[in-house]
Every structure is written in C-alpha cells, then in structure tokens.
Design goal:
single chain; about 375 residues; mainly beta; 6-stranded antiparallel sheet; 6-stranded mixed sheet
Length: about 375
C-alpha cells in the first residue's frame, strides 16, 4: 500500500497527514526498483478532499505538492517565487519551483529523485524525503514572516503506517524589571493583567502598556515619543528598527504587512499599543529588545505635534486623543519646542508645560516562526 506522510514542523507545529494511495514502486533487498503494474504515472488518489495549507500527493514517479497562498492563515498571501522544493540551490529551477495553480493555490510537481530528494529504506518502507522551503523575499529591514522548512515525504509501504510528531523545546522565559515612575510591560490578551510569557509567534499581537506613576500633586498625561527594536539591550546596536518615531507616530502601522495600532486611551497616565510581531531579516536570532522614550506632560488633554499617539488606519493618521490634525506631520518632521535630549530622568520646562522623560527597556521578547 502506498501512503504519504507530511510533517509540518516549524510552520504548522504538531500536525501531520497520512493518506492511503495506490501501490507504488517495490525495492528489493539489493536496492533495485521494480515498477508496479497498472498504475498510470499521473494517477493520484482523490479520496481525501480536506482542505489543508499543504497537501502532498504521491504517484509512481512524482511528488505533487499543493500549497495555499495563505499558508499561514494570516491573510498575507505568499508569492510562488517564495516557495520551492529542496535546498536554496533549487530555488527558481524548473520543476522545483512553485507555479500558480489558481489565484489562491500553488503547485510543485517533481520527480521522486528530483530537487535533492533522498531515497532511504526501512524494514517495511521505501521513503523519498525532501523539504518544502518557504523563503520570504526581503521588502524591509524587518519581516513578519520567517524562512520555514517543511519536511515532506512519500512512503511506499507493504504493511502499516508509522507516524511521528515533532517535539518543541520551550524557550527560557525572563521578565524585565525596572525601578522608575515609568513602566513598560507586556499585557494579557484581554489587557486585565500582565502577561507571564514573553514568547510570541509571527502573526501574534504583542500587547504593550506604558504607564506613569505620578508622585506629585500635578496630574500628567503620558506619551511615547519613540520606540526602537534591537537584537540586544543596546538601543544603538544594529540592526535596529524604529517602529514609533517623530514624537508618537506609529510608523510601523503604515507598512502594508502591519496591523499595529494604538488603542483608545482609557487613562491619561497609560498608553496601550498592539504591535504586530516581527523578526529581523537575514538574522537567525529570535529575541528582540524594545527601548522606548516615554514622557509625562503637565499639559492635560492638549495634543500637539510633540504630544500625540498616532496610528495609520484606513489610509489616514488617527490620534488616540481625537485631535487628528496633529498627526499630519507624521509623514514629514514633527516640530518641537525644545531641543532633543537623550539623557534619562529629565525634567524640562517649556511652552508644552512641565515634561518628565525617561528611557524604558522591555525584553527580551522571543519571536518564533508562525504556529
């Protein structure tokens, strides 16, 4: 009996598919291959019609792989040029490269020993093994998709099917601590409590809450001037990605791949942000650190080009404090009424009122490939 086994390790954790097909080649103890009788080369089994992100069908001489364009289930469609069978040397080469089968599906049809496929023998199986490679094309300094390798194989067996499940080793979890009137912390999905885990997957929202504890009699309103993501706790290290800049402009929200946005303000001393998880292009490290410049202003409910929290939503900038006109400078340079300073724990007096600033670090956050 011919069966196929598909293990979606890394991309679709803990999932597998086993399907019964027709009789395939027979290998004797010396490794010789004998064709089975009465099976057409292109004949495939259509008994399993369940829709899966990746489906493999084995014929007598070929491996056929069908992939949905939205393989991650995130509504971000892959291009066929980002999918191929085998190692990098097979990218863009003939039968190894994915081709459009429809608007929403791609297909690869390769010979059983093409594209680097390996033949192995067990006591009761003949196995042709390879891997489907997803290699996202770089479009920016960051990415919300990471390269993934999906093992695929055709098993030609005589007696029974053996399945296996990949093991996932949990990462070490650590939480940042800092003594300051300002805080930056991860929050649960419903925003009711701090999040205990610092592990995220691409496609997840990272709920970040900035807050300020006012020790004085004067009430203050909190703003996030800037935030930068780095691979170490040094905010000046490279590569780095400023996802908030220009005094409260969430520039990441303007990327077409991003769903990041500020939440409506519920308290003057709190700012909440949903950041669409990302990783750095061409870097295997999966931990990032976030460094934010926070400030508390004595000017209550008074938005200005330097006191704002702006997200790009439906092709326009929106301020959480409902004064959207102050966001118009986000596409240029927002003016300031005082010289920029990088020192910590600064108190300034200017036309914008009394401003207290501090730099706060959050991390490490572990960003894993898509579930």
């Amino acid at each position: 009996m011919l069966t196929i086994f598909l293990s979606l390790a890394l991309l679709l954790s803990h999932s597998s598919a086993v399907r019964n097909l027709k009789d395939g080649p027979v290998i004797d103890e010396d490794g010789r291959e004998y064709k089975s009788v009465g099976v057409d080369e292109d004949e495939v089994d259509a008994t399993n019609e369940e829709t899966q992100p990746v489906q493999v069908t084995c014929t007598e001489r070929s491996m056929i792989i069908e992939v949905t364009a939205d393989v991650f289930g995130s509504k971000r469609l892959l291009s066929p040029g980002e999918l191929f069978l085998g190692g990098a040397e097979h990218s863009g080469s003939g039968p190894c490269q994915a081709l459009p089968a429809s608007d929403a599906n791609y297909i690869i049809k390769a010979g059983l020993l093409d594209c680097g496929t390996q033949l192995s023998l067990s006591d009761d199986s003949v196995i042709y093994s390879n891997h489907l490679t997803f290699s996202p094309r770089p479009r920016h300094v960051i990415t919300r998709l990471t390269q993934a390798v999906i093992p695929v194989s055709c098993h030609y067996r005589r007696r029974h099917v053996v399945s296996s499940h990949p093991q996932v080793v949990p990462p070490i979890i650590s939480s940042p601590t800092k003594t300051s009137p300002f805080s930056l912390k991860l929050m649960s999905d419903d925003w009711t409590r701090p999040r205990l885990s610092n592990v995220f997957y691409l496609g997840d929202f990272i709920n970040i809450e900035a807050s300020y504890i006012n020790a004085g009699p004067e009430q203050r309103q909190l703003f996030i001037d800037s935030c930068v993501a780095t691979l170490s706790a040094d905010s000046t290290s490279v590569p780095r990605y400023f996802f908030i800049e220009n005094y409260g402009c969430l520039s990441d929200s303007k990327l077409h791949t991003s769903r990041s946005h500020f939440l409506s303000r519920r308290r003057v001393d709190v700012v909440q942000l949903q950041l669409d998880a990302f990783r750095f292009q061409r870097d295997s490290r999966n931990s990032i650190f976030i460094t934010c410049q926070l400030k508390a202003s004595s000017e209550m409910w008074r938005s200005s080009p330097v006191n704002k929290a702006c997200s790009y939503v439906h092709s326009r900038w929106i301020n959480v404090d409902e004064s959207d006109d102050v966001c118009s400078c986000c596409d240029s340079t927002c003016s300031q009424n005082f010289p920029k300073q990088d020192n910590k724990d600064i108190t300034r007096h200017n036309a914008e009122g009394t401003v207290i600033c501090d730099t706060t670090i959050l991390g490490p956050l572990v960003i894993l490939p898509n579930k």
